[in-house]
């Protein structure tokens, strides 16, 4: 799989994330490096909470138990426990099992809806984070992908420089905020250097956690 | 009807002896294949004719029966017809049987793949079989002709080399000579001897592998490469050099066994996680490259060959440039073109990490497409045999000082 980097939009303190910023960012991408719109993309993220009768012993159960589904892996479902740095790639039929077992209930579900752009050997996605049932924009992410490489280490210098170029372009627009990258700590999840969808899932989970954190800080 | 029932059953066998060419049984094995094939073709033609006769005979029998049934007043005429046809049919069937036996004995009709090819199954409709057999035999004749020609050519070149050594062949490396040399090559030699040693393909590959760590070189026959190209993605463990292609003669460097150096036509070089290069040699077994192409390490498919193009822009640009470099090496470094080419390719190990020597950046926009590309140009004229040897001996292998340029930066530099 090709290497991807995911960054989340951090608004400057005091400003909000709204659809205008999203369209500005999209415009930026579209005019950047001869980009060509390449299609739509979707992923979902669900927070699970244990289904307990007795609510007094919640501490034994993980608090940050997430499930992620990705468009590029329709037959897989990814479980992440961020606290213990565990990721599990399961078959998508696990959802039926969970439904039957009823041991965990879905607390919050979020959708990632993205538009993909292709620019030579690079690909970018502009992703908006919306809750499952509503339309309000909760966050913006971008995903950068370099197609020729699959080794995370080898792709690092290239991705860094691409990001620099991207940031330069963004700074011209003087939007209230910037993109930050959360260090995904792949090694702690015991993942190899070769990029896989598991890496993608971890990055999205990390980005979302950051978004939630910064949202909580703001208000 | 009652007339027919009164008749005695017609005679079983006929008096006509089966047509038998004099050399059919047993003697055919001693004849040359073309004659066997020609005879077999004749017999098949005959079988076809007999089968056609049988079909016509069957039609006549049916006609006779029909006439006899519909108009009984014709008397014994339909009966005579029927008897005659019956006798003919039995004769034809007998002929066919014996012909089949002959063909079996001469090895054509056996299921045991006498000439190494599968015979088609017998169809219920007799005519199809003859045609299919003819096609099969023609194919066998063709295959055996190619084999025989190849053997004849080999014998000829061997004899020529033996009796007329002063005539320069120059094309194919003699298998025994290369093996002898391989056994006695040491790691350090003075340049003059080394340049002559580098004429041999295994030596070139071995020395490059030694000089450039972290590089994997594999060699293939041309058809074997096509098989491998489509399955490159499945062999994701790049450490395993063992491939399960039965009968493929791969030159394993480090284990110079009885491998066919003269059949090597494709060289694959893999720098793990960075790129894969496919080089084609012409003629096979020589040290003359004739095409080179770069691909991403994960690319696989039938388009991954020395004249193919990667789907990625960066590797497409490098492949274009490599064609120019190849022509340069073939023209200016005639003796060591492959060696120089391989070393030049190795300078691309830093493709994704070394910034351009002119603008000091890693990515720059290509003028035509505006896509961001790493520096894809590395000057090839710096690679000559003497220069490579001197750089290898004077410094350690890990540092590589080849400058790199973006497409746009380079033209200004020149």
From TrEMBL, chain A:
Location of the protein in the cell: Nucleus
Keywords: Activator, Nucleus, Transcription, Transcription regulation
Xref: Pfam families: Med20
Subunit structure: Component of the Mediator complex.
Annotated function: Component of the Mediator complex, a coactivator involved in the regulated transcription of nearly all RNA polymerase II-dependent genes. Mediator functions as a bridge to convey information from gene-specific regulatory proteins to the basal RNA polymerase II transcription machinery. Mediator is recruited to promoters by direct interactions with regulatory proteins and serves as a scaffold for the assembly of a functional preinitiation complex with RNA polymerase II and the general transcription factors.
Similarity comment: family membership: Belongs to the Mediator complex subunit 20 family.
Name of the protein described by the UniProt record: Mediator of RNA polymerase II transcription subunit 20
Phylogenetic placement of the source organism: Eukaryota, Viridiplantae, Streptophyta, Embryophyta, Tracheophyta
From TrEMBL, chain B:
Similarity comment: family membership: Belongs to the Mediator complex subunit 27 family.
Location in or out of the cell: Nucleus
Biased composition (Low complexity): 23-33
Protein name per its UniProtKB record: Mediator of RNA polymerase II transcription subunit 27
Pfam family, one: Med27
Pro residues bias: start-end ranges: 8-22
Region of interest (Disordered), residue spans: 1-33
PANTHER family listed in its UniProt record: 34 KDA TRANSCRIPTIONAL CO-ACTIVATOR-RELATED, MEDIATOR OF RNA POLYMERASE II TRANSCRIPTION SUBUNIT 27
This protein's UniProt keywords: Nucleus, Transcription, Transcription regulation
Main location: nucleus
């Amino acid at each position: 799989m090709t290497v991807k980097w995911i960054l989340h939009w951090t608004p400057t303190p005091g400003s909000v994330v709204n659809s205008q910023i999203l369209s500005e960012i999209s415009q930026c991408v579209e005019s950047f490096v001869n980009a060509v719109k390449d299609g739509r993309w979707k992923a979902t993220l669900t927070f699970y909470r244990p289904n307990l009768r007795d609510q007094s012993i919640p501490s034994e159960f993980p608090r940050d138990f997430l499930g992620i589904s990705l468009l590029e892996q329709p037959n897989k479902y990814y479980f992440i426990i961020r606290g213990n740095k565990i990721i599990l790639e399961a078959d998508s039929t696990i959802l039926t099992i969970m439904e039957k077992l009823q041991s965990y209930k879905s607390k919050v579900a979020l959708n990632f809806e993205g538009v993909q752009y292709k620019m030579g050997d690079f690909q970018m996605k502009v992703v908006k984070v919306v809750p499952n049932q509503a339309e309000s924009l909760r966050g913006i992410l971008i995903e950068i992908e370099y197609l020729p490489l699959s080794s995370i280490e080898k792709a690092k210098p290239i991705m860094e420089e691409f990001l620099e170029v991207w940031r330069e372009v963004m700074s011209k627009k003087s939007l209230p905020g910037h993109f930050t990258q959360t260090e995904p700590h792949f090694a702690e999840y015991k993942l190899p250097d070769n990029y896989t969808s598991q890496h993608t899932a971890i990055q999205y989970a990390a980005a979302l956690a950051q978004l939630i954190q910064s949202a909580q800080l703001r208000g | 009807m009652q007339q027919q029932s009164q008749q005695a059953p017609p005679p079983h066998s006929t008096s006509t002896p089966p047509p038998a060419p004099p050399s059919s049984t047993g003697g055919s094995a001693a004849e040359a294949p073309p004659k066997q094939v020609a005879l077999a073709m004749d017999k098949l033609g005959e079988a076809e004719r007999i089968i056609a006769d049988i079909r016509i005979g069957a039609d006549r029998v049916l006609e006779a029966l029909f006439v006899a049934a519909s108009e009984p007043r014709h008397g014994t005429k339909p009966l005579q017809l029927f008897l005659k046809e019956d006798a003919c049919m039995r004769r034809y069937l007998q002929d066919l049987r014996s012909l089949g036996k002959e063909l079996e004995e001469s090895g054509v009709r056996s299921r045991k793949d006498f000439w190494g090819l599968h015979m088609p199954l017998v169809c219920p409709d007799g005519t199809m079989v003859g045609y299919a057999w003819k096609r099969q035999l023609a194919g066998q004749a063709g295959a055996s002709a190619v084999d025989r020609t190849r053997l004849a050519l080999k014998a000829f070149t061997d004899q020529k080399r033996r009796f007329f050594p002063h005539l320069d062949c120059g094309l194919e490396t003699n298998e025994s000579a290369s093996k002898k040399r391989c056994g006695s090559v040491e790691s350090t030699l003075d340049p003059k001897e080394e340049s002559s040693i580098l004429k041999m393909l295994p030596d070139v590959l071995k020395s490059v592998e030694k000089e450039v760590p972290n590089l994997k070189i594999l060699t293939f026959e041309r058809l074997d490469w096509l098989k491998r190209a489509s399955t490159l993605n499945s062999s994701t463990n790049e450490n395993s050099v063992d491939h399960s292609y039965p009968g493929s003669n791969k030159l394993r460097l480090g284990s110079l066994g009885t491998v066919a150096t003269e059949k090597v036509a494709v060289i694959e070089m893999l720098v793990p996680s960075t790129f894969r290069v496919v080089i084609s040699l012409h003629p096979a077994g020589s040290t003359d490259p004739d095409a080179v192409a770069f691909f991403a390490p994960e690319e696989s498919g039938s388009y991954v060959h020395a004249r193919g193009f990667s789907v990625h822009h960066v590797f497409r640009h490098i492949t274009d440039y490599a064609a120019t470099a190849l022509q340069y090496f073939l023209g200016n470094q005639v003796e060591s073109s492959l060696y120089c080419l391989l070393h030049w390719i190795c300078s691309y190990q830093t493709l994704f990490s070394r910034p351009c020597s002119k603008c000091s950046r890693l990515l720059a926009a290509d003028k035509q497409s505006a896509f961001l590309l790493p520096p894809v140009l590395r000057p090839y004229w710096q690679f000559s045999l003497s220069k490579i040897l001197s750089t290898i001996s004077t410094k350690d292998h890990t540092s590589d000082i080849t400058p790199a340029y973006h497409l746009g930066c380079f033209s200004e530099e020149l």
